[in-house]
TrEMBL record:
Residues 75-269 form the Fumarylacetoacetase-like C-terminal domain. It comes from Streptomyces aidingensis. Residues 1-70 form the Rv2993c-like N-terminal domain. The keyword Metal-binding applies. Keywords: Metal-binding. GO terms for biological process: carboxylic acid metabolic process. This is 2-keto-4-pentenoate hydratase/2-oxohepta-3-ene-1,7-dioic acid hydratase (Catechol pathway). It comes from the Bacteria. One of its GO terms (molecular function) is isomerase activity. SUPFAM superfamilies: FAH. InterPro entries: Fumarylacetoacetase-like_C (IPR011234), Fumarylacetoacetase_C_sf (IPR036663), Rv2993c-like_N (IPR018833). PANTHER family: ACYLPYRUVASE (PTHR11820), ACYLPYRUVASE FAHD1, MITOCHONDRIAL (PTHR11820:SF7). The lineage of its organism: Bacteria, Bacillati, Actinomycetota, Actinomycetes, Kitasatosporales.
Length: 273
Protein backbone atom coordinates (compact mmCIF):
# COMPACT_ATOMS: atom_id res chain seq x y z
CA UNK A 1 0.00 0.00 0.00
CA UNK A 2 1.23 3.47 -0.86
CA UNK A 3 0.16 6.24 1.51
CA UNK A 4 0.60 9.87 0.46
CA UNK A 5 0.16 13.09 2.39
CA UNK A 6 -1.39 15.87 0.34
CA UNK A 7 -2.90 19.32 0.29
CA UNK A 8 -5.93 20.38 -1.74
CA UNK A 9 -7.63 23.74 -1.42
CA UNK A 10 -5.76 24.35 1.83
CA UNK A 11 -6.84 21.07 3.43
CA UNK A 12 -4.18 18.55 4.41
CA UNK A 13 -4.89 14.83 4.53
CA UNK A 14 -3.67 11.32 3.81
CA UNK A 15 -4.74 9.06 0.98
CA UNK A 16 -4.00 5.65 -0.46
CA UNK A 17 -2.51 5.80 -3.96
CA UNK A 18 -4.74 3.89 -6.39
CA UNK A 19 -5.26 3.76 -10.17
CA UNK A 20 -7.55 6.54 -11.36
CA UNK A 21 -10.87 5.39 -12.85
CA UNK A 22 -10.89 5.31 -16.64
CA UNK A 23 -12.09 8.58 -18.13
CA UNK A 24 -11.45 10.53 -14.92
CA UNK A 25 -10.58 14.15 -15.72
CA UNK A 26 -7.10 15.06 -14.53
CA UNK A 27 -6.47 18.75 -14.93
CA UNK A 28 -3.45 19.98 -12.96
CA UNK A 29 -4.03 22.28 -10.01
CA UNK A 30 -2.85 25.87 -10.33
CA UNK A 31 0.80 26.12 -9.36
CA UNK A 32 1.24 22.36 -9.17
CA UNK A 33 4.64 20.93 -10.02
CA UNK A 34 4.62 18.46 -12.91
CA UNK A 35 4.99 14.91 -11.56
CA UNK A 36 4.84 11.42 -13.09
CA UNK A 37 1.46 10.74 -11.50
CA UNK A 38 -0.73 10.35 -14.58
CA UNK A 39 -3.33 7.66 -14.12
CA UNK A 40 -3.15 7.77 -10.32
CA UNK A 41 -5.64 8.95 -7.73
CA UNK A 42 -5.86 9.21 -3.97
CA UNK A 43 -8.48 7.34 -1.95
CA UNK A 44 -8.78 9.72 0.99
CA UNK A 45 -8.51 7.95 4.33
CA UNK A 46 -10.48 8.58 7.51
CA UNK A 47 -8.02 8.91 10.37
CA UNK A 48 -4.26 8.73 10.02
CA UNK A 49 -1.84 6.02 8.89
CA UNK A 50 -0.33 5.44 12.35
CA UNK A 51 -3.43 3.65 13.60
CA UNK A 52 -6.55 1.98 12.29
CA UNK A 53 -8.11 3.85 9.39
CA UNK A 54 -10.76 3.41 6.75
CA UNK A 55 -10.61 4.29 3.08
CA UNK A 56 -13.41 6.71 2.27
CA UNK A 57 -13.84 5.66 -1.34
CA UNK A 58 -13.64 9.33 -2.31
CA UNK A 59 -11.10 9.49 -5.13
CA UNK A 60 -9.15 12.61 -6.03
CA UNK A 61 -6.97 12.62 -9.19
CA UNK A 62 -3.33 12.94 -8.16
CA UNK A 63 -2.73 15.80 -10.58
CA UNK A 64 -5.26 17.89 -8.67
CA UNK A 65 -3.41 17.80 -5.36
CA UNK A 66 -0.06 18.97 -4.06
CA UNK A 67 1.99 16.15 -2.63
CA UNK A 68 3.55 17.04 0.73
CA UNK A 69 6.34 15.32 2.65
CA UNK A 70 4.75 11.95 3.41
CA UNK A 71 5.31 12.46 7.16
CA UNK A 72 6.27 15.29 9.50
CA UNK A 73 8.91 13.64 11.72
CA UNK A 74 9.77 14.87 15.18
CA UNK A 75 13.33 13.93 14.19
CA UNK A 76 15.25 12.48 11.28
CA UNK A 77 17.95 10.10 12.46
CA UNK A 78 20.53 9.67 9.73
CA UNK A 79 23.34 7.13 9.38
CA UNK A 80 26.61 8.05 7.71
CA UNK A 81 29.12 5.86 5.86
CA UNK A 82 26.81 2.84 5.72
CA UNK A 83 27.97 1.94 2.19
CA UNK A 84 31.65 0.95 2.00
CA UNK A 85 32.26 2.46 -1.45
CA UNK A 86 30.80 5.79 -0.38
CA UNK A 87 33.00 5.86 2.72
CA UNK A 88 36.03 5.22 0.53
CA UNK A 89 35.14 7.88 -2.04
CA UNK A 90 35.28 10.47 0.74
CA UNK A 91 38.53 9.08 2.10
CA UNK A 92 37.09 7.32 5.15
CA UNK A 93 37.13 3.81 6.55
CA UNK A 94 33.90 1.99 7.34
CA UNK A 95 33.25 2.91 10.99
CA UNK A 96 33.31 0.30 13.76
CA UNK A 97 29.86 1.47 14.91
CA UNK A 98 27.24 3.39 12.88
CA UNK A 99 27.81 7.13 12.56
CA UNK A 100 24.51 8.67 13.66
CA UNK A 101 23.47 12.30 13.28
CA UNK A 102 20.26 14.33 13.19
CA UNK A 103 18.51 16.41 10.59
CA UNK A 104 15.88 18.71 12.14
CA UNK A 105 12.21 18.63 11.20
CA UNK A 106 12.69 22.05 9.55
CA UNK A 107 14.99 20.45 6.98
CA UNK A 108 12.17 18.30 5.56
CA UNK A 109 10.55 19.16 2.23
CA UNK A 110 8.37 17.17 -0.13
CA UNK A 111 8.33 16.12 -3.77
CA UNK A 112 8.51 19.08 -6.13
CA UNK A 113 9.63 21.46 -3.39
CA UNK A 114 12.76 23.52 -3.94
CA UNK A 115 16.11 22.72 -2.39
CA UNK A 116 17.35 26.18 -1.44
CA UNK A 117 21.09 26.51 -1.90
CA UNK A 118 22.47 27.81 1.43
CA UNK A 119 24.34 31.09 1.29
CA UNK A 120 27.10 29.81 3.59
CA UNK A 121 28.19 26.99 1.24
CA UNK A 122 29.73 26.71 -2.23
CA UNK A 123 29.65 22.90 -2.49
CA UNK A 124 26.29 21.21 -2.00
CA UNK A 125 26.00 17.48 -2.80
CA UNK A 126 23.16 15.02 -3.37
CA UNK A 127 22.95 11.74 -1.42
CA UNK A 128 20.23 9.29 -2.47
CA UNK A 129 18.97 7.19 0.44
CA UNK A 130 16.31 4.70 1.48
CA UNK A 131 14.27 6.21 4.31
CA UNK A 132 12.53 4.12 6.97
CA UNK A 133 9.31 5.58 8.38
CA UNK A 134 8.56 4.54 11.95
CA UNK A 135 4.96 3.53 12.63
CA UNK A 136 4.77 3.25 16.42
CA UNK A 137 6.47 4.49 19.56
CA UNK A 138 9.43 2.24 20.24
CA UNK A 139 12.52 1.89 22.43
CA UNK A 140 15.09 -0.92 22.84
CA UNK A 141 13.72 -2.83 19.86
CA UNK A 142 15.17 -6.37 19.48
CA UNK A 143 16.26 -7.32 15.98
CA UNK A 144 13.57 -9.96 15.59
CA UNK A 145 10.85 -7.35 16.20
CA UNK A 146 12.26 -4.51 14.11
CA UNK A 147 9.73 -5.01 11.30
CA UNK A 148 6.88 -4.44 13.78
CA UNK A 149 7.82 -0.79 14.33
CA UNK A 150 8.09 0.14 10.63
CA UNK A 151 5.21 1.82 8.82
CA UNK A 152 7.01 1.71 5.48
CA UNK A 153 9.68 3.20 3.28
CA UNK A 154 10.17 6.28 1.13
CA UNK A 155 12.87 7.99 -0.94
CA UNK A 156 15.18 10.55 0.63
CA UNK A 157 17.94 12.90 -0.43
CA UNK A 158 20.42 13.75 2.32
CA UNK A 159 21.47 17.10 0.86
CA UNK A 160 24.88 18.02 2.28
CA UNK A 161 27.00 21.16 2.31
CA UNK A 162 30.21 19.19 1.77
CA UNK A 163 32.60 22.10 2.33
CA UNK A 164 30.97 22.83 5.67
CA UNK A 165 31.02 19.14 6.63
CA UNK A 166 34.78 19.08 6.02
CA UNK A 167 35.46 22.25 7.98
CA UNK A 168 33.26 21.70 11.06
CA UNK A 169 33.48 18.81 13.55
CA UNK A 170 29.70 18.73 14.02
CA UNK A 171 27.46 18.25 10.98
CA UNK A 172 24.50 20.30 12.20
CA UNK A 173 24.91 23.09 9.64
CA UNK A 174 26.26 20.88 6.85
CA UNK A 175 23.30 18.51 6.91
CA UNK A 176 20.59 20.31 8.85
CA UNK A 177 19.93 23.49 6.90
CA UNK A 178 16.41 24.27 5.68
CA UNK A 179 15.32 22.12 2.70
CA UNK A 180 18.22 19.65 3.14
CA UNK A 181 15.96 16.61 3.61
CA UNK A 182 13.60 15.97 0.67
CA UNK A 183 11.28 13.00 1.34
CA UNK A 184 8.68 11.32 -0.86
CA UNK A 185 6.75 10.86 -2.95
CA UNK A 186 4.81 8.56 -0.58
CA UNK A 187 5.28 5.76 1.95
CA UNK A 188 5.28 2.20 0.61
CA UNK A 189 4.10 -0.09 3.42
CA UNK A 190 4.60 -3.47 1.75
CA UNK A 191 8.24 -3.76 0.76
CA UNK A 192 11.26 -5.94 1.46
CA UNK A 193 14.12 -3.43 1.83
CA UNK A 194 16.93 -5.97 1.64
CA UNK A 195 17.89 -5.64 -2.05
CA UNK A 196 16.39 -2.65 -3.84
CA UNK A 197 17.92 -0.75 -6.75
CA UNK A 198 18.57 2.95 -6.04
CA UNK A 199 19.36 5.56 -8.68
CA UNK A 200 20.10 9.27 -8.46
CA UNK A 201 20.05 11.48 -11.55
CA UNK A 202 20.84 15.16 -12.01
CA UNK A 203 19.25 16.78 -15.06
CA UNK A 204 18.58 13.26 -16.36
CA UNK A 205 22.21 12.12 -16.04
CA UNK A 206 22.91 9.15 -13.76
CA UNK A 207 25.09 10.01 -10.79
CA UNK A 208 24.48 7.23 -8.27
CA UNK A 209 23.56 3.58 -8.77
CA UNK A 210 23.48 1.09 -5.94
CA UNK A 211 21.49 -1.56 -4.13
CA UNK A 212 20.32 -1.62 -0.53
CA UNK A 213 21.98 -5.04 -0.20
CA UNK A 214 25.28 -3.11 -0.19
CA UNK A 215 24.53 -1.55 3.20
CA UNK A 216 27.13 -2.34 5.84
CA UNK A 217 24.35 -2.60 8.43
CA UNK A 218 20.80 -3.41 7.39
CA UNK A 219 17.56 -1.74 8.44
CA UNK A 220 16.98 -4.03 11.42
CA UNK A 221 20.50 -3.48 12.75
CA UNK A 222 20.06 0.29 12.49
CA UNK A 223 16.76 0.20 14.38
CA UNK A 224 18.35 -1.87 17.16
CA UNK A 225 21.32 0.50 17.40
CA UNK A 226 19.27 3.72 17.37
CA UNK A 227 16.51 2.61 19.75
CA UNK A 228 19.09 1.45 22.29
CA UNK A 229 19.74 5.16 22.77
CA UNK A 230 16.48 6.95 22.08
CA UNK A 231 12.74 6.60 21.74
CA UNK A 232 11.39 6.83 18.22
CA UNK A 233 7.92 8.26 17.66
CA UNK A 234 5.36 7.54 14.94
CA UNK A 235 6.43 9.44 11.84
CA UNK A 236 10.10 9.61 12.75
CA UNK A 237 12.45 8.81 9.88
CA UNK A 238 15.72 6.88 9.66
CA UNK A 239 18.02 7.62 6.73
CA UNK A 240 20.04 4.49 5.98
CA UNK A 241 23.08 5.87 4.12
CA UNK A 242 23.99 6.53 0.51
CA UNK A 243 25.85 4.53 -2.15
CA UNK A 244 28.90 5.86 -3.97
CA UNK A 245 28.64 8.57 -6.60
CA UNK A 246 27.70 11.63 -4.57
CA UNK A 247 28.41 14.88 -6.33
CA UNK A 248 27.69 18.58 -6.65
CA UNK A 249 24.40 20.34 -7.24
CA UNK A 250 24.02 23.81 -8.71
CA UNK A 251 21.18 26.30 -8.83
CA UNK A 252 18.76 25.26 -11.57
CA UNK A 253 19.57 21.53 -11.37
CA UNK A 254 16.81 18.94 -11.12
CA UNK A 255 17.76 16.00 -8.91
CA UNK A 256 15.76 12.77 -8.78
CA UNK A 257 16.03 9.80 -6.42
CA UNK A 258 14.37 6.59 -7.61
CA UNK A 259 14.08 3.44 -5.50
CA UNK A 260 12.76 0.13 -6.77
CA UNK A 261 9.27 -0.59 -5.44
CA UNK A 262 8.70 2.96 -4.18
CA UNK A 263 8.92 5.55 -6.95
CA UNK A 264 10.77 8.77 -7.70
CA UNK A 265 11.42 11.87 -5.61
CA UNK A 266 12.23 14.93 -7.72
CA UNK A 267 13.34 18.39 -6.58
CA UNK A 268 14.93 21.44 -8.16
CA UNK A 269 17.74 23.52 -6.69
CA UNK A 270 16.97 27.20 -6.25
CA UNK A 271 18.70 30.26 -4.89
CA UNK A 272 17.35 32.03 -1.82
CA UNK A 273 15.04 34.94 -2.73
Amino acid sequence: MRIARFSIDGTVGFGVVVPAPEGEPGGAAAGAVSRPTAGLALDIIKGHPFGDFDRSGKLVPMDQVRLLPPVLPSKVVAVGRNYAEHARELGHEVPQVPVVFFKPSTSVIGPGDEIVYPGFSTEVHHEAELAVVIGRLCKDVPRERAAEVILGYTCANDITARDIQRSEDQWARAKGFDSSCPLGPWVETELDPSDLAMICTVNGEQRQLGRTSEMVRDVADLIVHITAAMTLLPGDVILTGTPAGVGPLHVGDEVAVSIEGIGTLTNKVATRD
